[in-house]
Amino acid sequence: MAVMLFRLSIFLAAITALLEIGVAANSRRQQCTTTLSDAKLVADQLQLHYYNSSTGQYNLGELWTDANTLEDLHNLMLANDSDDYENAADTSYIAKAALDPNTDWTKFLGGSNDDAQWIILALWKIADYKSARGQDSSAYISSAAKIYDMIAREWDDTCGGGVWWSTEHTYKNAITNELFLLTSAAGYLRTKNEAYLENANKEWSWLIASGMRGPNGLFNDGLDLKTCQNNGQTTWTYNQAVVASGLAALYAATGNTSLLDQAEVSLDATIVSLTGNGILRESCDLADETCNHDQQIFKGIWTKHVQYYLDNANDISRVAKYSQFLGVQHSGILLHATNSAHDIGSVWYTADQGRSQWSPEASASGLQAFISAAKYGSC
Protein backbone atom coordinates (compact mmCIF):
# COMPACT_ATOMS: atom_id res chain seq x y z
CA MET A 1 0.00 0.00 0.00
CA ALA A 2 2.86 2.40 0.83
CA VAL A 3 4.40 1.79 -2.60
CA MET A 4 1.06 2.42 -4.29
CA LEU A 5 0.60 5.71 -2.41
CA PHE A 6 4.15 6.77 -3.28
CA ARG A 7 3.53 6.05 -6.96
CA LEU A 8 0.26 7.96 -6.75
CA SER A 9 1.95 11.02 -5.26
CA ILE A 10 4.57 11.00 -8.03
CA PHE A 11 1.87 10.57 -10.65
CA LEU A 12 -0.21 13.48 -9.35
CA ALA A 13 2.87 15.67 -9.13
CA ALA A 14 3.66 14.91 -12.77
CA ILE A 15 0.16 15.91 -13.83
CA THR A 16 0.54 19.17 -11.92
CA ALA A 17 3.70 19.98 -13.85
CA LEU A 18 1.93 19.35 -17.15
CA LEU A 19 -0.97 21.65 -16.38
CA GLU A 20 -0.41 25.35 -16.97
CA ILE A 21 -3.66 26.44 -15.39
CA GLY A 22 -4.53 25.85 -11.76
CA VAL A 23 -7.81 24.45 -10.60
CA ALA A 24 -10.25 25.88 -8.13
CA ALA A 25 -10.45 23.44 -5.25
CA ASN A 26 -13.99 24.26 -4.29
CA SER A 27 -16.83 21.78 -4.64
CA ARG A 28 -19.22 24.67 -5.22
CA ARG A 29 -17.15 26.49 -7.85
CA GLN A 30 -18.64 27.75 -11.08
CA GLN A 31 -18.85 25.33 -13.98
CA CYS A 32 -16.17 25.73 -16.66
CA THR A 33 -18.08 27.11 -19.65
CA THR A 34 -15.37 26.15 -22.16
CA THR A 35 -15.51 22.51 -21.14
CA LEU A 36 -19.31 22.57 -21.11
CA SER A 37 -19.21 23.92 -24.67
CA ASP A 38 -17.12 20.90 -25.66
CA ALA A 39 -19.67 18.68 -23.93
CA LYS A 40 -22.54 20.28 -25.83
CA LEU A 41 -20.86 19.59 -29.17
CA VAL A 42 -20.54 15.92 -28.23
CA ALA A 43 -24.12 15.72 -26.96
CA ASP A 44 -25.47 17.37 -30.10
CA GLN A 45 -23.66 14.85 -32.28
CA LEU A 46 -24.71 11.97 -30.05
CA GLN A 47 -28.36 12.89 -30.46
CA LEU A 48 -28.03 13.58 -34.18
CA HIS A 49 -25.99 10.53 -35.06
CA TYR A 50 -27.32 7.83 -32.75
CA TYR A 51 -30.67 8.74 -31.19
CA ASN A 52 -33.79 7.33 -32.84
CA SER A 53 -36.73 9.38 -31.59
CA SER A 54 -39.25 6.98 -33.12
CA THR A 55 -38.02 4.09 -30.97
CA GLY A 56 -36.69 6.14 -28.08
CA GLN A 57 -33.45 4.19 -28.24
CA TYR A 58 -29.87 4.77 -29.30
CA ASN A 59 -28.93 2.88 -32.44
CA LEU A 60 -26.43 0.18 -31.44
CA GLY A 61 -27.13 0.95 -27.79
CA GLU A 62 -28.39 -1.24 -24.97
CA LEU A 63 -30.87 -0.76 -22.12
CA TRP A 64 -28.33 0.03 -19.42
CA THR A 65 -26.09 2.16 -21.62
CA ASP A 66 -29.11 4.11 -22.86
CA ALA A 67 -30.00 4.75 -19.22
CA ASN A 68 -26.52 6.13 -18.57
CA THR A 69 -26.72 8.31 -21.67
CA LEU A 70 -30.04 9.80 -20.55
CA GLU A 71 -28.48 10.48 -17.16
CA ASP A 72 -25.55 12.20 -18.87
CA LEU A 73 -27.78 14.46 -20.98
CA HIS A 74 -29.66 15.57 -17.90
CA ASN A 75 -26.40 16.13 -16.04
CA LEU A 76 -25.39 18.42 -18.89
CA MET A 77 -28.66 20.36 -18.90
CA LEU A 78 -28.46 20.83 -15.14
CA ALA A 79 -24.83 21.95 -15.48
CA ASN A 80 -25.33 24.51 -18.24
CA ASP A 81 -28.88 25.47 -17.23
CA SER A 82 -30.30 24.60 -20.63
CA ASP A 83 -33.24 22.70 -22.07
CA ASP A 84 -31.38 21.53 -25.17
CA TYR A 85 -32.38 17.89 -24.80
CA GLU A 86 -35.61 18.24 -22.85
CA ASN A 87 -37.44 15.90 -25.22
CA ALA A 88 -34.89 13.12 -24.74
CA ALA A 89 -36.45 11.97 -21.51
CA ASP A 90 -40.07 11.83 -22.48
CA THR A 91 -39.42 10.34 -25.92
CA SER A 92 -37.06 7.65 -24.63
CA TYR A 93 -38.46 4.18 -24.12
CA ILE A 94 -37.12 4.18 -20.58
CA ALA A 95 -38.99 7.35 -19.63
CA LYS A 96 -42.15 6.23 -21.41
CA ALA A 97 -42.09 3.12 -19.27
CA ALA A 98 -41.66 5.27 -16.16
CA LEU A 99 -44.58 7.49 -17.13
CA ASP A 100 -46.88 4.50 -17.62
CA PRO A 101 -48.24 3.34 -14.24
CA ASN A 102 -49.07 -0.04 -15.80
CA THR A 103 -45.53 -0.88 -16.90
CA ASP A 104 -44.56 -4.45 -16.11
CA TRP A 105 -41.08 -3.76 -14.79
CA THR A 106 -40.28 -7.45 -14.38
CA LYS A 107 -40.76 -7.92 -18.11
CA PHE A 108 -39.10 -4.63 -19.04
CA LEU A 109 -35.93 -5.33 -17.07
CA GLY A 110 -35.59 -8.92 -18.21
CA GLY A 111 -34.12 -10.11 -14.94
CA SER A 112 -31.06 -7.82 -15.02
CA ASN A 113 -30.52 -6.49 -11.53
CA ASP A 114 -27.59 -4.31 -12.54
CA ASP A 115 -29.44 -2.80 -15.53
CA ALA A 116 -32.37 -2.07 -13.25
CA GLN A 117 -30.25 0.09 -10.97
CA TRP A 118 -28.74 2.10 -13.82
CA ILE A 119 -32.34 2.90 -14.71
CA ILE A 120 -33.02 4.04 -11.15
CA LEU A 121 -30.12 6.49 -11.43
CA ALA A 122 -31.38 7.78 -14.78
CA LEU A 123 -34.93 8.25 -13.48
CA TRP A 124 -33.65 10.14 -10.46
CA LYS A 125 -31.62 12.45 -12.67
CA ILE A 126 -34.58 13.09 -14.96
CA ALA A 127 -36.64 13.85 -11.86
CA ASP A 128 -33.99 16.32 -10.67
CA TYR A 129 -34.15 18.11 -14.02
CA LYS A 130 -37.96 18.18 -14.04
CA SER A 131 -38.08 19.47 -10.47
CA ALA A 132 -35.53 22.19 -11.28
CA ARG A 133 -37.89 23.35 -14.04
CA GLY A 134 -40.93 23.28 -11.78
CA GLN A 135 -42.36 20.25 -13.57
CA ASP A 136 -43.98 17.14 -12.12
CA SER A 137 -41.37 14.48 -11.42
CA SER A 138 -43.51 12.12 -9.38
CA ALA A 139 -43.85 9.40 -12.03
CA TYR A 140 -40.07 9.07 -12.30
CA ILE A 141 -39.65 8.91 -8.54
CA SER A 142 -42.45 6.38 -8.18
CA SER A 143 -41.06 4.12 -10.89
CA ALA A 144 -37.58 4.27 -9.39
CA ALA A 145 -39.03 3.21 -6.04
CA LYS A 146 -40.82 0.25 -7.61
CA ILE A 147 -37.60 -0.92 -9.26
CA TYR A 148 -35.61 -0.47 -6.06
CA ASP A 149 -38.03 -2.66 -4.13
CA MET A 150 -37.60 -5.39 -6.75
CA ILE A 151 -33.83 -5.28 -6.35
CA ALA A 152 -33.96 -5.28 -2.56
CA ARG A 153 -35.78 -8.60 -2.73
CA GLU A 154 -32.82 -10.07 -4.65
CA TRP A 155 -30.65 -10.17 -1.50
CA ASP A 156 -30.08 -13.55 0.10
CA ASP A 157 -27.54 -15.36 2.28
CA THR A 158 -25.59 -17.09 -0.50
CA CYS A 159 -21.91 -16.27 0.12
CA GLY A 160 -23.00 -14.49 3.28
CA GLY A 161 -25.23 -11.92 1.60
CA GLY A 162 -25.35 -9.63 -1.39
CA VAL A 163 -27.69 -9.00 -4.30
CA TRP A 164 -27.73 -11.35 -7.27
CA TRP A 165 -26.57 -10.08 -10.70
CA SER A 166 -29.76 -11.43 -12.26
CA THR A 167 -32.99 -13.05 -11.21
CA GLU A 168 -31.58 -16.37 -12.46
CA HIS A 169 -29.29 -16.35 -9.40
CA THR A 170 -26.14 -17.53 -11.15
CA TYR A 171 -23.63 -14.84 -10.12
CA LYS A 172 -22.87 -12.31 -7.41
CA ASN A 173 -20.68 -9.52 -8.65
CA ALA A 174 -19.20 -6.20 -7.67
CA ILE A 175 -21.13 -3.76 -9.84
CA THR A 176 -24.61 -4.98 -8.88
CA ASN A 177 -23.77 -4.69 -5.19
CA GLU A 178 -21.96 -1.38 -5.56
CA LEU A 179 -25.05 -0.06 -7.29
CA PHE A 180 -27.21 -1.38 -4.46
CA LEU A 181 -24.99 0.46 -1.99
CA LEU A 182 -25.44 3.62 -4.05
CA THR A 183 -29.17 3.36 -4.70
CA SER A 184 -29.76 2.53 -1.04
CA ALA A 185 -27.66 5.36 0.38
CA ALA A 186 -28.70 7.94 -2.22
CA GLY A 187 -32.28 6.73 -1.92
CA TYR A 188 -32.15 7.40 1.80
CA LEU A 189 -30.90 10.94 1.16
CA ARG A 190 -33.88 11.48 -1.13
CA THR A 191 -36.60 9.80 0.91
CA LYS A 192 -35.33 9.54 4.52
CA ASN A 193 -36.71 6.00 4.42
CA GLU A 194 -34.80 4.16 7.14
CA ALA A 195 -35.09 0.86 5.24
CA TYR A 196 -32.86 2.34 2.53
CA LEU A 197 -30.23 3.33 5.08
CA GLU A 198 -30.36 -0.11 6.70
CA ASN A 199 -29.81 -1.68 3.29
CA ALA A 200 -26.88 0.63 2.55
CA ASN A 201 -25.13 -0.23 5.81
CA LYS A 202 -25.83 -3.94 5.34
CA GLU A 203 -24.52 -3.82 1.78
CA TRP A 204 -21.27 -2.10 2.66
CA SER A 205 -20.62 -4.44 5.57
CA TRP A 206 -21.02 -7.39 3.24
CA LEU A 207 -19.18 -5.87 0.29
CA ILE A 208 -16.03 -4.92 2.19
CA ALA A 209 -15.90 -8.41 3.73
CA SER A 210 -16.64 -10.23 0.46
CA GLY A 211 -13.05 -10.31 -0.74
CA MET A 212 -13.91 -8.78 -4.12
CA ARG A 213 -11.47 -5.93 -3.51
CA GLY A 214 -7.97 -7.24 -4.00
CA PRO A 215 -4.76 -6.23 -2.21
CA ASN A 216 -4.08 -3.67 -4.95
CA GLY A 217 -7.20 -1.74 -3.91
CA LEU A 218 -9.17 -2.67 -7.02
CA PHE A 219 -12.45 -4.55 -7.13
CA ASN A 220 -12.44 -7.59 -9.37
CA ASP A 221 -15.58 -8.51 -11.28
CA GLY A 222 -17.22 -10.84 -8.78
CA LEU A 223 -17.28 -14.04 -6.77
CA ASP A 224 -16.78 -17.69 -7.64
CA LEU A 225 -19.98 -19.21 -6.28
CA LYS A 226 -18.29 -22.56 -5.68
CA THR A 227 -15.90 -21.04 -3.18
CA CYS A 228 -17.44 -17.61 -2.46
CA GLN A 229 -13.97 -16.20 -3.15
CA ASN A 230 -12.81 -13.40 -5.45
CA ASN A 231 -12.92 -14.81 -8.99
CA GLY A 232 -9.89 -12.78 -10.10
CA GLN A 233 -11.66 -11.49 -13.20
CA THR A 234 -10.97 -8.09 -14.77
CA THR A 235 -10.69 -4.96 -12.64
CA TRP A 236 -12.81 -2.59 -14.72
CA THR A 237 -12.60 1.15 -14.10
CA TYR A 238 -16.27 1.68 -13.35
CA ASN A 239 -16.26 -0.75 -10.44
CA GLN A 240 -13.77 1.46 -8.65
CA ALA A 241 -15.86 4.65 -8.79
CA VAL A 242 -19.42 3.40 -8.38
CA VAL A 243 -18.42 2.05 -4.98
CA ALA A 244 -16.93 5.46 -4.17
CA SER A 245 -20.10 7.34 -5.04
CA GLY A 246 -22.08 4.90 -2.93
CA LEU A 247 -19.74 5.38 0.02
CA ALA A 248 -19.93 9.17 -0.29
CA ALA A 249 -23.73 8.99 -0.25
CA LEU A 250 -23.54 6.81 2.85
CA TYR A 251 -21.12 9.32 4.40
CA ALA A 252 -23.62 12.11 3.68
CA ALA A 253 -26.24 10.05 5.50
CA THR A 254 -24.11 9.10 8.50
CA GLY A 255 -21.21 11.54 8.82
CA ASN A 256 -18.73 8.64 8.99
CA THR A 257 -15.59 10.02 7.30
CA SER A 258 -13.89 6.61 7.26
CA LEU A 259 -16.22 5.76 4.37
CA LEU A 260 -14.53 8.45 2.27
CA ASP A 261 -11.12 7.02 3.07
CA GLN A 262 -12.35 3.60 1.96
CA ALA A 263 -13.68 5.11 -1.26
CA GLU A 264 -10.35 6.65 -2.08
CA VAL A 265 -8.53 3.34 -1.76
CA SER A 266 -10.14 2.26 -5.03
CA LEU A 267 -10.07 5.69 -6.69
CA ASP A 268 -6.35 6.00 -6.01
CA ALA A 269 -5.72 2.45 -7.17
CA THR A 270 -7.45 3.31 -10.46
CA ILE A 271 -5.10 6.22 -11.05
CA VAL A 272 -2.08 4.07 -10.29
CA SER A 273 -3.04 0.90 -12.13
CA LEU A 274 -5.72 1.60 -14.75
CA THR A 275 -4.18 4.46 -16.72
CA GLY A 276 -1.79 5.12 -19.57
CA ASN A 277 -0.14 8.50 -20.09
CA GLY A 278 -2.16 9.79 -17.14
CA ILE A 279 -5.46 8.87 -18.83
CA LEU A 280 -7.94 6.12 -18.00
CA ARG A 281 -7.36 2.87 -19.84
CA GLU A 282 -9.27 -0.40 -19.80
CA SER A 283 -7.43 -3.65 -20.38
CA CYS A 284 -9.43 -4.02 -23.60
CA ASP A 285 -8.04 -0.69 -24.86
CA LEU A 286 -4.64 -2.34 -25.35
CA ALA A 287 -3.14 -3.38 -28.67
CA ASP A 288 -4.52 -6.90 -29.01
CA GLU A 289 -7.95 -6.23 -27.50
CA THR A 290 -11.22 -4.59 -28.57
CA CYS A 291 -13.70 -3.30 -26.02
CA ASN A 292 -17.30 -4.41 -26.50
CA HIS A 293 -20.26 -2.04 -26.28
CA ASP A 294 -20.59 -2.45 -22.52
CA GLN A 295 -16.92 -1.84 -21.88
CA GLN A 296 -16.80 1.27 -24.08
CA ILE A 297 -18.82 3.27 -21.54
CA PHE A 298 -16.95 2.20 -18.40
CA LYS A 299 -14.41 5.04 -18.26
CA GLY A 300 -17.05 7.74 -18.50
CA ILE A 301 -18.97 6.07 -15.70
CA TRP A 302 -15.79 6.29 -13.61
CA THR A 303 -15.60 10.06 -14.14
CA LYS A 304 -19.33 10.50 -13.50
CA HIS A 305 -19.19 8.68 -10.20
CA VAL A 306 -16.08 10.55 -9.11
CA GLN A 307 -18.18 13.66 -9.70
CA TYR A 308 -20.94 12.19 -7.54
CA TYR A 309 -18.35 11.19 -4.96
CA LEU A 310 -17.05 14.75 -4.74
CA ASP A 311 -20.58 16.15 -4.65
CA ASN A 312 -21.44 14.22 -1.50
CA ALA A 313 -17.99 14.37 0.09
CA ASN A 314 -18.19 18.18 -0.19
CA ASP A 315 -14.60 18.53 0.94
CA ILE A 316 -12.22 21.06 -0.62
CA SER A 317 -9.14 18.92 -0.03
CA ARG A 318 -10.72 15.89 -1.69
CA VAL A 319 -11.78 18.00 -4.66
CA ALA A 320 -8.21 19.25 -5.02
CA LYS A 321 -6.91 15.69 -4.96
CA TYR A 322 -8.87 14.59 -8.05
CA SER A 323 -9.61 17.77 -9.99
CA GLN A 324 -6.40 17.73 -12.00
CA PHE A 325 -6.90 14.13 -13.01
CA LEU A 326 -10.43 14.88 -14.21
CA GLY A 327 -9.10 17.80 -16.22
CA VAL A 328 -6.49 15.60 -17.88
CA GLN A 329 -9.23 13.20 -19.01
CA HIS A 330 -10.93 16.06 -20.86
CA SER A 331 -7.75 17.21 -22.57
CA GLY A 332 -6.71 13.65 -23.40
CA ILE A 333 -10.05 12.86 -25.03
CA LEU A 334 -9.88 16.05 -27.08
CA LEU A 335 -6.37 15.19 -28.21
CA HIS A 336 -6.69 11.47 -28.86
CA ALA A 337 -10.33 10.46 -29.20
CA THR A 338 -12.46 13.25 -30.70
CA ASN A 339 -13.02 13.44 -34.45
CA SER A 340 -14.02 16.45 -36.54
CA ALA A 341 -17.72 15.60 -36.19
CA HIS A 342 -17.40 15.53 -32.37
CA ASP A 343 -17.88 11.79 -32.09
CA ILE A 344 -15.71 10.26 -29.39
CA GLY A 345 -13.85 6.98 -29.71
CA SER A 346 -13.36 4.39 -27.01
CA VAL A 347 -9.57 4.74 -26.62
CA TRP A 348 -8.57 7.87 -24.71
CA TYR A 349 -5.00 7.36 -23.56
CA THR A 350 -3.25 7.40 -26.93
CA ALA A 351 -3.83 8.29 -30.54
CA ASP A 352 -6.21 5.96 -32.36
CA GLN A 353 -4.32 3.19 -34.11
CA GLY A 354 -7.39 1.39 -35.38
CA ARG A 355 -8.53 -0.02 -32.03
CA SER A 356 -10.86 2.80 -31.03
CA GLN A 357 -14.54 1.93 -31.34
CA TRP A 358 -17.09 4.55 -32.40
CA SER A 359 -20.49 4.03 -30.84
CA PRO A 360 -23.15 5.75 -28.72
CA GLU A 361 -21.55 4.18 -25.66
CA ALA A 362 -18.12 5.59 -26.50
CA SER A 363 -19.54 9.06 -27.15
CA ALA A 364 -21.64 8.98 -23.98
CA SER A 365 -18.54 7.96 -22.05
CA GLY A 366 -16.59 10.92 -23.35
CA LEU A 367 -19.55 13.23 -22.81
CA GLN A 368 -19.69 12.45 -19.12
CA ALA A 369 -15.93 12.87 -18.78
CA PHE A 370 -16.36 16.40 -20.15
CA ILE A 371 -19.27 17.13 -17.79
CA SER A 372 -17.29 15.94 -14.77
CA ALA A 373 -14.25 17.94 -15.84
CA ALA A 374 -16.40 21.04 -16.28
CA LYS A 375 -17.46 20.83 -12.65
CA TYR A 376 -14.29 19.66 -10.95
CA GLY A 377 -11.44 19.76 -13.47
CA SER A 378 -9.13 22.47 -14.73
CA CYS A 379 -10.53 25.36 -16.73
UniProtKB/TrEMBL annotation:
SUPFAM superfamilies: Six-hairpin glycosidases. Pfam families: Glyco_hydro_76 (PF03663). Residues 1-24 form the signal peptide. GO terms for molecular function: hydrolase activity. Keywords: Hydrolase, Signal. GO terms for biological process: carbohydrate metabolic process. This is Glycoside hydrolase family 76 protein.
